[in-house]
Design brief:
Layout (H helix, E strand, L loop, with lengths): L27 E3 L5 E8 L1 E3 L17 E5 L1 E3 L5 E6 L2 E9 L2 E6 L10 H4 L4 H13 L5
Antiparallel strand pairs: 1-5, 2-4, 3-6, 6-7, 7-8
């Protein structure tokens, strides 16, 4: 799941994905109210696990973001790989025979500014994330 005004719980809590079956498979918990966090001054993510394959080949700090959807980490499942403003930014989870992941900001202009969408690692990050998601879990 990728963030945005109509993602996670969304604007005015209209989307409410936390009340659907998707809530059971994600590595985070969604809030029951409007979860948008606007940061017009910009906020930079912090990578907690730079050695994870999702970040392979990305060897510099991330650009700033202008907002994101606030979520909470799941205490019993999933792994938070990066945070933004102390909240989950990139998270992953193995579920059943597959995998899921979240990116709590926008992948396009709005919360994802041009510094992100034209970042030299933009394509590599999405490729790495998709590669990890489609790789079959062990076991």
């Amino acid at each position: 799941m990728i963030g945005g005004y109509m993602s996670f719980t969304g604007i005015d809590a209209k989307t409410r994905y936390g009340e659907t079956a998707i809530a059971d498979i994600l590595p985070i918990k969604m809030l029951p109210y409007d979860d948008r966090v606007e940061k017009p001054e910009g906020v930079n993510p912090a990578i907690l696990h730079p050695e994870h394959p999702v970040f392979e080949g990305i060897d510099e700090e991330w650009p700033h973001f202008l907002g994101y959807n606030k979520t909470l980490p799941q205490s019993d499942s999933g792994e938070i790989l990066a945070i933004i403003n102390g909240d989950p930014f990139v998270g992953i989870r193995e579920y059943g025979k597959g995998r899921t992941g979240i990116f709590s900001s926008d992948c396009a202009p709005h919360w994802g500014p041009v510094e992100f969408t034209s970042w030299k690692y933009y394509d590599l990050f999405w490729k790495n994330l998709m590669d990890w998601l489609v790789e079959r879990p062990e076991g």
